[in-house]
Amino acid sequence: MSITGRIHSLESFGAVDGPGVRFVVFFQGCPLRCLFCHNPDSWDTNGGMLMEADRLAENILSYKNYLSGGVTFSGGEPLLQSVFCEALMDQLQENGMHIAIDTSGAIPPENVKNILDKADLLLLDIKSIDPTMCKTITRMDNHNALKTLQYREKIGKPVWIRHVILPDYTLDYPMLEQMAEKLQKFSCIEKIELLPFHKMGEYKWEALKEPYQLEKIEPPSKEDMEKIKEIFRKHHFEVS
Ligand code: SF4
User: Fold this and answer.
1) DSSP 150
2) What 3-state DSSP class applies to 6?
3) Mean pLDDT of 165-192
4) Mean pLDDT across 133-144
5) Which site from 46, 93, 146, 175 is most exposed, i.e. has the minimal number of CB atoms within 10 Å?
6) Nearest CA to ligand 1 atom 7
7) Radius of gyration in angstroms for the set of CA atoms belonging to the chain, rounded to a whole number
8) pLDDT in tens, 216-228
């Protein structure tokens, strides 16, 4: 019998989650509670739609000719459903698909080693390089995320780092300098994606009756985003 998992939603033509045009599978369930989350409806591990890995792989493969990049697993947290995630990845990779996994790195890497070994690309969301700030933003420190990065470095497989710039929290120049310096030691990092905070998911928090704490925070300015990009470029990173 095929393995089943919980899916939040599917996007057949994604252009922002990894290289090329990609099919994006948003997994249901997340152990974090990021203040800026724009998908709080993906948190509940009992929510979403139940899907069989075989059927979902078949559906995705029917788009194969249009997918110049491959498939991205996002969420929620895809590594929370590790058995289902690996089964789906195996079937897609057997059919020549490039798999990127967009993860917060919240799951201990030793529990998802097979997936970290096989994923063609890891999009690792480092919420903050400072463990205390990371806990303030997500409720969990960055220990597992950094261990996940170290593991990909050890096996020599590529990582793109994603980092949300949130005024009053991560928009902190000394902390960003420190982050660029720390990350510079990792040759597995191909790229840094700096994502300006936005409020597009605020209405979902209201609908779920979850208290949204960022209503007074405005998105970072273009000038700040440019200055921050420069910090990472100065440390020889490709930045977008
Ligand atoms: S890890 Fe992603 S899905 Fe989970 S709470 Fe944070 S932003 Fe939301």
Assistant:
1) H
2) strand
3) 98
4) 98
5) 46
6) 37
7) 17
8) 999 999 999 999 9
| Nearest atom of ligand 1 to the alpha carbon of 76 | 3
CA 225 – CA 227 distance, rounded (Å): 6
Pairing state of beta strands 49-52 and 22-27? unpaired
pLDDT for the residue 2: 83
Distance 162 CA to ligand 1 centre (A): 12
* Phi and psi at residue 181, to the nearest 5°: -65, -45
CA of 125 from ligand 1 middle (Å) equals 9
Cα→Cα distances 58→28, 44, 67, Å: 20, 26, 14
95, two tokens: 């059919």
Taking CB atoms and a 6 Å cutoff, what residues make up the pocket around ligand 1? 30, 32-34, 37, 39, 42, 75-77, 104, 138
Closest ligand 1 atom to Cα of 106: 1
What residue's CA is closest to ligand 1, atom 8?
37
Say how many Å lie between the CA of residue 187 and the centre of ligand 1.
Answer: 26
Burial of 66 (0-12, 13-18, 19+ CB in 10 A): exposed
pLDDT at 110: 98
The Å distance, Cα 1 to ligand 1 centre, comes to 31
Model pLDDT for residues 79-105, shown as the tens digit of each residue: 999 999 999 999 999 999 999 999 999
Task: Assess contact for 47 and 28: CB atoms under 8 A.
Answer: yes
Copy the structure tokens of residue 142.
């960055």
The CA angle 93-94-97, to the nearest 5 degrees, is 35
Q: Output the pTM of the full model.
A: 0.97
